[in-house]
Amino acid sequence: MNASDFYSLSRNNVLLDIRSPGEYLAGHIPGAVSFPLFTDEERAIIGKLYKQQGHDFAVKKGLSFVAPKMVSFVTQAEHLSADKELFLYCWRGGMRSKSMEWLLSTAGFKVTRLEGGYKAFRESMRNEFLKDYKYLTLSGNTGTGKTAILQELEARGQQVLDLEGLADHYGSAFGDIHSGVQPSTEHFNNLVFEKLQSLDASKVIWVEDESKHIGKVWMDEGLFNSIKNSPMVIVMKSFEERVEWLCKLYGKGDHESLKEGFRKIEKRLGPQNAKIAIEAIEQEDLPAAARIALEYYDKSYEHLLSKRIKTKVGELDGRTFSHREIAEKLIEEVANYGG
After folding, report:
1. Do residues 67 and 44 share a domain?
2. Mean pLDDT of the chain
3. Helix 55-66 with 40-53: angle, nearest 10 deg
4. Does 90 qualify as catalytic in the annotation?
5. Same domain for 101 and 243?
6. What is the spatial distance between Cα 82 and Cα 188, in angstroms, rounded to a whole number?
7. Both 96 and 140 in a single domain?
8. Domain span at residue 65?
9. What is the CB-side half-sphere exposure of residue 281 using CA atoms within 13 A?
10. Distances from the Cα of 125 to the Cαs of 29, 118, 119, 128, 197, in angstroms?
11. pLDDT of 162 over the 90 cut
């Protein structure tokens, strides 16, 4: 079964990732359960044998690892799938998934294997990112509250692709203060693909204007270019409104993390400015630190905007308006942006 059909049908069934735990952790088809044929250590041993002594020796070693686990595999599968219908994949759709397919089929399960494996899924994902989705990019200076506006849009029935939410990062040097552990770049793009599958490609999809990387993860090249070249609406807030929002957003966070954020941009900010900002944090003067940060990010934003200005389709003066009110105004005007 090809990757596109496999993915669609597996959504309402049990999906098993037959690869090793390390491979699964690096990235997997969203919704898949780790069901490794080999441990990471066993996989390394087999790979070494294959290189040193050839295919036959590696296969025999693999069988010696699998044989004692066969009953356990069947028992685990029974717990996962009461109706005995399973979807599974390995890296290339080769020996690992074929072996598990044989075992579970013999045990009475209906098994569907992904031809080409996880590699085929990733190729399908990259092709999906090249499709003509109707992205509408929400832009604006740091502190405008773009993520909050996106949340208000989604709450009102609009389609939203929240890249920062999927990346678990706010996207700046301070972006990891309230976040957890970021996914790998590989799995981040898998999660974006999953989200896109739940959206209607014929309708507008709101997305925040982002650089190619969000914290430690990087957008797929095709995805980034599609978003970068999409129509863009800029929301404007006053400087002091943005200072107030940043203090609200980061004020309850760990102040040591705030200081570390300024250290990350010290070279670009200037050592003296970074020193003043850190001292302001130590004195509980967060607005002063926020103003220094915004002066830096505003210059950076103007530079990036100069490269994107050809895609600008409108501006919305959001000064004095709440994020909810801004979202409502954007919805009223969405038809003017291609909706």
Report:
1. yes
2. 91
3. 160
4. yes
5. no
6. 31
7. no
8. 3-126
9. 24
10. 10, 10, 10, 5, 10
11. yes
Domain endpoint, select from 92, 108, 126? 126
Q: Domain check: are 118 and 139 in the same one?
A: no
Query: Do both 280 and 170 map to the same domain?
Result: yes
Q: What is the DSSP string of 144-198?
A: S-HHHHHHHHHHTT-EEE-HHHHHTS-SSTTTTTT--PPPPHHHHHHHHHHHHHT
CATH number at residue 197: 3.40.50.300
The type of residue at 103 is L
CA count, 13 A, side-chain hemisphere, 121: 27
Could you read off the pLDDT of 46-102 as tens digits, one per residue?
Answer: 999 888 998 888 889 989 999 999 999 999 999 999 888 999 999 999 999 999 999
Spatial separation of the C-alpha atoms in residues 147 and 170, rounded to whole Å: 9
The band of 310, judged by pLDDT with boundaries at 50, 70 and 90, is low
Q: Is the confidence at residue 338, as pLDDT, over 60? A: no
29, 37, 46, 90: the active-site residue: 90
Q: Are 206 and 136 in contact (CB under 8 A)?
A: yes
Whether residue 328 sits in one domain with residue 264: yes
